[in-house]
Design brief:
By secondary structure, the chain is α/β, with parallel strands linked by helices. The chain has seven helices and six strands, in the order E-H-E-H-E-H-E-H-E-H-E-H-H. The strands form two sheets. The chain has a three-stranded parallel beta sheet with strand order 2-1-3, sandwiched between helices. It has a three-stranded parallel beta sheet with strand order 5-4-6. Helix 1 packs parallel to helix 4.
Length: about 180
């Protein structure tokens, strides 16, 4: 892995990006596409940054150009999934009825080199031409409340996590754009 994280650094040191970056604009995308695109980016960019996600309400284009990055034309999430499918091990499905499972799904997707997806997106991505396998389906856990979700995470996921950096999704934003 090209990412290095010395103990003296607050954040990991990244390698130089690829000569040309693929990109996706998620400004007008649904919350499930934004989540899937971000987790796809996380897996693909581990070795060498190759995907740039322009997120909602950010003026990302300016900073990328200012840094001299060679960014290709925006692609759809599905085009990126097709292009990088050989590097993705599968899908982690979150439970839309227990939306905090998005945080569990993104963490597990990182562990498994997968993509965190909604049930509807999983339907599309398990079919041709993608044919991704389902790594975990969090709906099967039957978690109903936030307390149940984070209790499960504390017992089952937290022991596998690094304690160096903890990040959570802004689920209020996620909920408001569904």
């Amino acid at each position: 892995m090209s990412l290095t994280w010395e103990k003296s650094r607050a954040l990991p040191r990244l390698t130089a990006p690829a000569d040309r970056l693929d990109c996706i604009t998620t400004r007008r995308a649904s919350a499930d596409i934004r989540t899937a695109a971000t987790t796809l980016q996380g897996v693909i960019n581990r070795e060498t940054p190759r995907i740039l996600v322009y997120e909602k309400n950010y003026k990302s284009e300016n900073w990328a150009a200012d840094l001299g990055l060679n960014v290709g034309k925006p692609m759809t999430f599905f085009a990126l999934a097709e292009k990088y499918k050989s590097e993705i091990k599968g899908l982690v499905i979150y439970d839309e009825n227990a939306i905090d499972t998005v945080n569990l799904a993104t963490t597990l997707a990182g562990f498994h080199d997968g993509i965190a997806v909604s049930p509807a997106l999983a339907e599309s991505l398990t079919a041709a031409p993608y044919n991704f396998t389902i790594l975990e389906d969090l709906r099967k856990l039957g978690l109903k409340s936030r307390l149940e979700v984070y209790t499960y995470a504390l017992k089952n996921i937290w022991p596998k996590c690094s304690r160096r950096l903890v990040i959570t999704s802004t689920l209020a934003r996620w909920r408001s754009t569904r």
